[in-house]
């Protein structure tokens, strides 16, 4: 008798459930490990110091395409991806390591470009590149970044602290990086169909920069500190507003209600979205790679937070039985949906 | 006028010179960064604690082949690669992060296997898996591991501390992992040429285990501590004895003289090497992936170190103008050569 075992595809679980499935049973054994998997960064305690550590992968063909990602920008973005997680814990990045696997066909001069972007971002965010590994790759390029930061233990912000009636806030504007990748992909397809047609990227400067050379919101962490606002929960928006807001709701065991009209979307993003027949709000909800901060603050901070430039209040936290809702422009209400593994 | 720029291939530099070229100009800016790129791990100072941080990449087709690497073993080896660097600094691993990029075709059950190997090794080496990132990959599997450890600052051991007349020591035996990969590759080729012929791996248990499921030498660090031996320099052998000894010589600005007869090689390794028409000593010098410790101790520790099981004294440190030499069985002397980028 032979029973063929049915294997489970990754797509059946999705990224978040997969991580939970694989690592949910892990118990921390060292007293220096305060918090493991499940937030933007792990939290460690060494002597009197509270440290946060996070890691990110950037994979060719998934996170970037060397056809249109200049290597200097890619180096810069690598550092941003690392430090953004540290800011999302309300901590300060101190050190990063960057490991890369590259085909032997890549030149030393190309890697010089990549490292010049890394060094520029290290200067901008005041972090030290202290290590890494290099390897050849049989196929595409892969980058791994680890970032270590220091935090004030009492001021660490997790995904789990949002409470009923807290205001939901985002920094900057959303969906631009997604609009940028759509433009780059459109031009790539045109070029690959007929390579006499040169890509026309003029007029798309803002969204292209948001895609290719994003910034982490150190300035928002500074601003919140100066304004004496300690968020109750926080996450950086890398998977899209919907998916990242789901994380806050899940970890805080709450629901949410956001207002479509209040989601900050840049004019250029909206214009491009319409040009591409995409609802602008879809870019914000599902696009990702914004590296903006999504956070909640107590209701009594309403006045201060509303007065801060670059911060938008987009909704509030509800009871978990209220679900996760978006109020549309016409006053209707829709259920928010988060994207899965892709 | 058009001048075509000549681009430099990675192979022209080799891995170590490439890293130097790319990162040689980096100045550390944060006072918590004590030592950056250039040793087995970076060294950090947070409050009263001295931490070490290292990262490694394992790339499919370069570091492992899923045709013959069971995923559970691969998970185990991932942790070993991470903690081995920490031991090589005479420090204690505390936390690791593991990030993986995998094809969507891999099943959840396969990843379960991989993580069961990680968890087993975490238990064995008393480290906590505290984070990681998962991504899909368009091509092969890639693994990135970062390990954080704690050290006694006065007892940190760098690559740079070897002095004239110090004894050169290695733990365990060398070349077995290389013999293992040769056997696996031979059987793979036979199987691919005619898949009716099943691989015959019987009688190769030891070298296969050394290749597929190596151990890090925590026990040697314990033993040295108990014996009051503080090495003057240390590195873990991952690139091969020759290449890793070169690192100690380069960082310590010294030469070396080792004795071929004294290089510890297991009988099974030697037998297989001869079967494959390779000089056994070549497996030890250039093979790599041994995860043994290579270290130097002051001459006055000769008696103690010689009495320790699992440690072999293979030579001594000379002046840098004496070069890097190996005395052969017939009393001749050959120049040691290190391997480059591959």
Question: Could you characterize what this model shows?
Answer:
With 342 residues, chain A is of the alpha+beta class. Chain A has helices spanning 10-13, 15-23, 71-87, 108-125, 176-193, 205-212, 218-226, 241-252, 267-275, 280-286, 302-307, and strands spanning 33-35, 42-46, 49-59, 92-102, 128-131, 134-136, 142-151, 167-171, 233-237, 255-259, 292-297, 311-318, 324-327, 333-335. In chain A, strands 1, 2, 3, 4, 5, 6 and 7 form a 7-stranded mixed beta sheet that branches. Chain A is globular.
What would you say about this model in short?
The structure is a homodimer of 342-residue chains. With 342 residues, the first copy, chain A, is α+β, with helices and mostly antiparallel strands. Helix content of chain A is 34%, strand content 24%.
Which key features would you list for this structure?
homodimer, 342 residues, alpha+beta, 60s Ribosomal Protein L30, Chain: A, Phosphoribosyl-aminoimidazole Synthetase, Chain A, domain 2, seven-stranded mixed sheet, 11 helices, 34% helix, globular
Distance from N terminus to C terminus of chain A (CA atoms, Å) equals: 37 Å
Order of helices and strands of chain A: HHEEEHEHEEEEHHHEHEHHEHEEE
Biggest interface found: A-B, 80 and 80 residues
Number of helices of chain A: 11
Count of β-strands of chain A: 14
Mean pLDDT of chain A: 93
Determine the structural class of chain A based on helices, strands and strand pairing.
alpha+beta
Oligomer: homodimer
Q: What would CATH call the homologous superfamily of the largest domain in chain A?
A: PurM-like C-terminal domain
Major sheet description of chain A:
7 strands, mixed
**Count of distinct structural domains of chain A:** 2
**CATH architecture classification name of the largest domain in chain A:** Alpha-Beta Complex
Strand percentage of chain A = 15-25%
- Stretches of chain A where pLDDT is under 50 for at least 5 consecutive residues are none
């Amino acid at each position: 008798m032979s029973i063929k075992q049915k294997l489970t595809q990754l797509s059946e679980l999705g990224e978040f459930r997969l991580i939970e499935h694989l690592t949910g049973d892990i118990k921390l054994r060292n007293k220096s490990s305060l918090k493991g998997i499940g937030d933007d960064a792990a939290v460690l305690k060494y002597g009197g110091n509270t440290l946060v550590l996070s890691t990110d992968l950037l994979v060719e063909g998934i996170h970037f395409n060397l056809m249109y990602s200049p290597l200097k920008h890619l180096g810069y973005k690598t550092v941003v991806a690392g430090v953004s997680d540290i800011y999302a814990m309300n901590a300060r990045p101190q050190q990063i390591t960057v490991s890369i696997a590259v085909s032997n066909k890549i030149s030393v001069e190309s890697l010089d470009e990549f490292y010049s972007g890394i060094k520029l971002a290290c200067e901008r965010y005041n972090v030290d590149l202290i290590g890494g590994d290099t390897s050849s790759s049989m196929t595409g390029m892969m980058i791994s970044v680890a970032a270590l930061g220091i935090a004030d233990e009492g001021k660490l912000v997790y995904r789990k602290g949002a409470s009923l009636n807290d205001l939901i806030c985002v920094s900057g504007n959303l969906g631009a990086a997604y609009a940028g990748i759509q433009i780059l992909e459109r031009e790539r397809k045109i070029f690959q169909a007929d390579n006499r047609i040169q890509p026309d990227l003029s007029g798309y400067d803002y969204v292209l920069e948001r895609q290719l050379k994003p910034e982490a919101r150190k300035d928002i962490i500074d601003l919140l500190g100066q304004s004496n606002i300690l968020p109750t929960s926080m996450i950086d928006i890398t998977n899209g507003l919907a998916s990242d807001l789901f994380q806050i709701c899940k970890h805080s065991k709450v629901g949410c209600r956001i207002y479509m009209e209040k989601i900050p979307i840049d004019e250029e993003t909206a214009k491009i979205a319409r040009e591409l027949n995409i609802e602008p709000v879809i870019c914000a909800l599902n696009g990702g790679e914004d590296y903006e901060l999504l956070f909640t603050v107590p209701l009594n901070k309403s006045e201060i937070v509303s007065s801060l430039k670059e911060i938008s209040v987009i909704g509030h936290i509800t009871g978990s039985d209220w679900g996760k809702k978006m109020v549309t422009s016409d006053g209707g209400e829709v259920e928010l949906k988060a994207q899965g593994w892709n």
